[in-house]
Amino acid sequence: MNPAPPRRRDRPRLPAAVRRRQILDVTTRLIAERGFWGLSMQDVADDCGLTVPGLLHHVGTKDKLLVAVLEHRDDQDHQSLAEALGRPAGEVPLPEICDALVRRNAAQPEIVRLFAVLEAESLAPGHPAHDYFARRQQTTITTMTGLARAYGVPDPETLARQVMALMDGLQIQWLRDPGGIDLVATWTAAAGTLFR
Question: Which Pfam families match (predicted)?
């Protein structure tokens, strides 16, 4: 008896940019559900209609795929924020930028969950996103410090750290109880005190 031939995957030919976007979207969803350590390249390949070697052809390694997902999400968030503000971030007061960020995040809980899970996992120095999140945190604090300084705050770095801690903390509470916590309303109430 001859063994059954290997199953052939339906692999529609997609332009490279479209295929890469598909891979990033599938990976984003899977990481949000399982975390990076629960991510299987086989599952990503299956969901994209690819073989694992075909997937690796597009992304290189699992570690590179993770960083590509994070950078892709950052690019999308920056573009969305700029559109929501209607002018360059440097011309917008810090409270208004923070409000826009919170509103954006409230509309995409799966992405907020992705970043929360990965940020916690990446506290381990061996995690492939450890350096990415360290750089991201420093960049965020530096940017918010500059915005707070322009806002006339006497200790802008302290305010920047407080804003970041408040946003992160409220988002974790909201992710744990999305039906019980209104992220935007809770942020607005807290920001009234923070920016007073």
Answer: TetR_N
